[in-house]
Design brief:
The protein is about 40% helix and about 15% strand. The chain is of the alpha/beta class. The longest helix is centred in the N-terminal third of the chain and has 19 residues. The structure holds NADP nicotinamide-adenine-dinucleotide phosphate. The site of NADP nicotinamide-adenine-dinucleotide phosphate has 19 residues, from loops.
């Protein structure tokens, strides 16, 4: 398709799909959205690292052709004030895989979050956040090496559906009247703001399916359904029930429920089976602090996942290093999980870790595990040598504080030593 401001690179080929299976050429065109604020610094540094790793891991046989697409302030400058140009969506529909820096959400004026818009429009229903500790990274835990989970957060439903009625409006009054008079719902005060929390079998099952498929592909040992079903029976409780149903119907060979383990296997998970278990959301926070080893892949609803992702990231270095991805049936958008940190814009100072490891997830998504591992190892070596950006330097003894660009150079140099 012809684009207005987007320039399709001369070299490189499109990723394609055959019967739902992704075909990745050796020279794929991948999209990037630079991002606002610190976006330029972290994207520039990370692209250098990704490119160097691919070149080294495949001796030049593979190479990424980058194609810039626009959102946020850079888009507004180019597209006459449009923060989210339509052709950015079109590019994702044509090229499938990309990565983005953080985007400013303009406050007020009826703007929706650009991140939420991207997820909604492209139907990127799984938000995936791997949380693991890297040696040397400052952590508040005594044994941070026990944290190694991958969170699958449902991205399209729950209170994020935006069905809310503001107190004092005619819509709110009409809805309140309907609830009281026709539905017999009386458990709320006069003048309360009202919201609706939709959770469907379709939305829940496709997310849980993606989590189980991931667990199978990556050799993970369990999938924990995290929910608040003790209170919200027909939404959160239903999510849990649909999860067990799906595992039984679609993955009977590969999975086993904790109930079956207790009843038929004396509490021991049979070899080669993935355990399907569940936990109430509030207790999950305690478990992940005290016994993180008991959980591996987590599948949860949107709001639980939002809280849990940042809380667990804090256990292993914080949002400055936590990576993330939003994935649909075919389109995958990898992203830094922190914001634009505007006070550090163009200071060449911040930690590129979150974006960098989102790129590592992207390389794994393409099946380029060698390049992904090379980055992880070189990163660990760099932290071990105590070359770190300001955020880690202030939590570590005897660290050498380096700029974002210097940190990238160190990682690239260390690729020769891993
Ligand atoms: P933020 O940009 O994430 O920054 C909050 C603090 O987190 C920073 O002041 C800094 O802490 C630390 N931080 C963030 N990124 C870091 C990095 N790469 N390296 C080291 N430290 C880092 O959150 P915010 O100030 O609440 O939000 C600013 C803007 O970002 C808002 O417009 C918001 O809407 C947007 N936002 C976008 C996304 C996204 O695009 N996914 C996500 C969240 C927020 P210190 O001050 O302690 O150094």
């Amino acid at each position: 398709m012809a684009y207005d401001k987007i320039i399709v690179p001369d070299t490189g080929e499109k990723i394609s799909f055959t019967d739902g299976k992704m075909n990745v050429p050796d020279n794929p065109i991948l999209l990037f959205i630079e991002g606002d604020g610190i976006g330029y610094d972290i994207m520039t540094a990370s692209k250098r690292i990704w490119d160097a790793a691919v070149k080294k891991a495949y001796s030049g046989k593979r190479e990424i052709s980058w194609m810039e697409v626009y959102s946020g302030e850079k888009a507004a400058g180019l597209y006459d004030g449009d923060y989210m140009p339509e052709e950015t969506f079109e590019a994702f529909r044509e090229f499938y895989v990309g990565i983005k820096g953080p985007l400013t959400t303009p406050v007020g004026g009826g703007f929706r979050s650009l991140n939420v818009t991207l997820r909604k429009v492209l139907d990127l229903y799984s938000c995936i956040r791997p949380v693991r500790w890297f040696k040397g990274v400052p952590s508040p835990l005594r044994e941070p090496q026990d944290v190694d989970v991958v969170i699958f957060r449902e991205n399209t439903e729950d209170i994020y559906a935006g069905i809310e009625f503001e107190a004092g409006t005619p819509e709110n009054e009409k809805f309140a009247k309907f609830l009281r008079e026709e539905m017999g719902a009386t458990g709320f005060f006069e003048g309360a703001g009202l919201g609706v929390k939709p959770i469907s079998p379709f939305g829940s099952k496709r997310l849980i399916r993606a989590a189980i498929e991931y667990a199978i592909e990556r050799g993970r040992s369990s999938v924990t359904l995290v929910h608040k079903g003790n209170i919200q029976k027909f939404t959160e409780g239903a999510f849990q029930r649909w999860g067990y149903e799906l595992a039984k119907e679609e993955f009977p060979e590969q999975t086993i429920s904790w109930e079956e383990v207790a009843e038929k296997h004396d509490g021991k998970v049979p070899e080669g089976k993935i355990l399907i278990q569940d936990t109430i959301a509030d207790i999950m926070f305690q478990k992940m602090l005290l016994r993180p080893r008991e959980h591996d892949v987590i599948a949860t609803t949107n709001l639980n996942g939002d809280y849990l992702s940042d809380a667990l990231a804090a256990e292993v270095g914080g949002v400055g290093i936590a990576p993330g991805a939003n994935i649909g049936d075919e389109i995958a958008l990898f992203e830094a999980t922190h914001g634009t940190a505007p006070k550090y814009t163009n200071k060449d100072m911040v930690n590129p870790g979150s974006l960098l490891f989102s790129g590592v997830m992207m390389l794994e998504h393409l099946g380029w595990f060698e390049a992904a591992d090379l980055i992880t190892k070189a990163y660990e070596m760099t932290i071990d040598q105590k070359f770190v950006t300001y955020d880690f330097a202030r939590q570590m003894d005897d660290a050498t504080k380096v700029a974002t660009s210097e940190f990238a150079t160190k990682i690239i140099e260390n690729m020769d030593n891993v």
